[in-house]
Amino acid sequence: MNATPVEVVADSDAVEVLGLHCRITNRLRAASIFCVGDLCRTTARDLMKLPGFGTKSLHEVEAALQRAGRSLRAEEQRS
């Protein structure tokens, strides 16, 4: 895992540029999340539904995106 800040991350960059643990990257790829843009269009709730993806994985993803100046999609407000 790479804890150093990522400078510029484009939507088309592979999720590997975020420096996530291999296990998390494998879970994302199994869910057809291959690039940073795919990940940023995903909600935390969606990620938590993935098999083997727990709270620690979610926190690691959120921290990596934050270092890159990005974030997961916000949950939609229900009326």
Automatic annotation (TrEMBL):
EC number: 2.7.7.6
Protein's UniProt keywords contain Transcription: yes
Annotated InterPro entries: RNAP_asu_C (IPR011260)
Keyword Transit peptide: no
Keywords: DNA-directed RNA polymerase, Nucleotidyltransferase, Transcription, Transferase
GO biological process, one term: DNA-templated transcription
SUPFAM superfamilies xrefs: C-terminal domain of RNA polymerase alpha subunit
Ranges for domain RNA polymerase alpha subunit C-terminal: 13-66
Pfam families, A to Z: RNA_pol_A_CTD
EC class: transferase
CC terms in the record's Gene Ontology section: DNA-directed RNA polymerase complex
Molecular-function annotations in GO: DNA binding; DNA-directed RNA polymerase activity
Source organism superkingdom: Bacteria
Protein name: DNA-directed RNA polymerase subunit alpha
